[in-house]
Specification:
- The protein is α+β, with helices and mostly antiparallel strands and about 325 residues long.
- It folds into three domains: about 10-105, no CATH class; about 130-210 and about 300-310, no CATH class; about 225-290, SH3 Domains (SH3 type barrels, Roll), CATH 2.30.30.40.
- The chain is built from eight helices and 16 strands.
- It has a five-stranded mixed β-sheet. Strands 13-12-11-8-14 form a five-stranded antiparallel β-sheet, with no helix packed on it.
- Helix 5 packs antiparallel against helix 8 (about 185-190).
- The two termini are about 55 Å apart.
Length: about 325
């Protein structure tokens, strides 16, 4: 007789009766370690206990059957063969039961990313040196103060996997001298959303904004989902602020169908993102949702204060 490795606690109830002492089983299991994860029905030891029988797996279609509460094999009597069988069953049970909790955990299906709230983070909010630095940097960006901004960029700032490090390359990539440099738009968008601590093989522990990528769940596809960063945003039936509101959403991860949809009014510059939430599809303003693949601004604090060590999109 063999015990399937796919056995669970539920199948331990559909079993025949094997004649051995539960007290012996408890003693044997206790000797091997904690038994808190083993069903109490298998270990309960009554006062006398000597003739108590315990339920174990016999398997559908097995030649083992019970007669008057005793185990009988067709055409045989209880004797040395049955004792050997009981001993083997005990050994199999001792080897198998400790693995049940781990197996049950492996089989637990992962939660769907859209099922949970994706709360915003600001993990350095209590660090006054950070909040003062962040507020001063936001002011400098608003004023287009290039001297201050370049003054807080680390000398060896990372500019991508295939690009040289350093401030010169940073200035070239962001075209910081141009009036419409994307730096003035993207950096405040990142900083306003809050920061979280983050590290990987190419970057030591850093404080990175926004929190979206550092706290992105592993079971959510970063290419097909986005994080709603607004406390409340209206899901509309079309890409327009004047159409029907289907529902209100906030701080969650949703399926993205189209990242850039123009407003139905050609004279309106508003951009929309088409998403699916549950069974509904609709449109939300692009500024209310963020992809984990968008630019991430990372900072580290040194002897001279906080420095920008990278401002890259995921994978760069």
């Amino acid at each position: 007789m063999t015990v399937s490795p796919r056995l669970t606690y539920a199948t331990l109830a559909d079993i025949a009766i094997l004649n051995f002492n539960r007290c012996d089983l408890r003693n044997a299991l206790t000797d091997t370690g904690p038994v808190s994860h083993i069903p109490d029905t298998l270990l309960h030891c009554p006062g006398s206990g000597l003739d108590t029988q315990v339920s174990l797996i016999a398997g559908a279609g097995s030649s083992i059957r019970t007669v008057g509460g005793r185990v009988k094999a067709p055409g045989q009597t209880q004797g040395p063969l049955l004792r050997i069988l009981r001993q083997n069953i005990c050994m199999l049970l001792l080897a198998f039961i400790p693995a049940l909790p781990a197996y049950a955990q492996q089989k637990k299906p992962p939660a769907k990313p859209q099922d949970g709230v994706f709360a915003p983070r600001d993990e350095a909010a209590s660090d006054q040196s950070w909040t003062r630095f962040r507020d001063r940097l936001l002011q400098a960006v608003q004023e287009r103060d290039k001297k201050f901004v370049l003054g807080i960029v680390a000398r060896n700032v990372r500019n991508g996997l295939e690009q040289p490090a350093g401030i010169e390359e940073f200035v070239r990539q962001w075209d910081i001298d141009a009036e419409d440099s994307p730096l003035w738009r993207e950096l405040p968008r990142a900083l306003h959303l809050g920061a979280a601590w983050y590290s990987h093989e190419k970057m030591p522990r850093s404080l990175c904004a926004p929190y979206v990528l550092p706290r992105w769940p592993k079971d959510a596809d970063p290419h097909g989902y986005g994080a709603i960063t607004a406390r409340e945003t209206a899901l509309r039936a079309g890409p327009s602020g004047s159409v029907e509101i289907l529902t209100n959403l906030g701080h969650s991860i949703v399926r993205v169908i189209d990242w850039e949809v123009a407003d139905s009014d050609a004279d309106t510059r508003q951009k929309w993102v088409k998403i699916r939430s549950g069974k509904r599809e609709g449109f939300i303003p692009e500024e209310h949702i963020r992809s984990p693949l968008e630019h991430l601004a990372c900072f580290r604090k040194g002897e001279t204060g906080w420095r920008l060590t990278s401002f890259l999109a995921a994978g760069e």
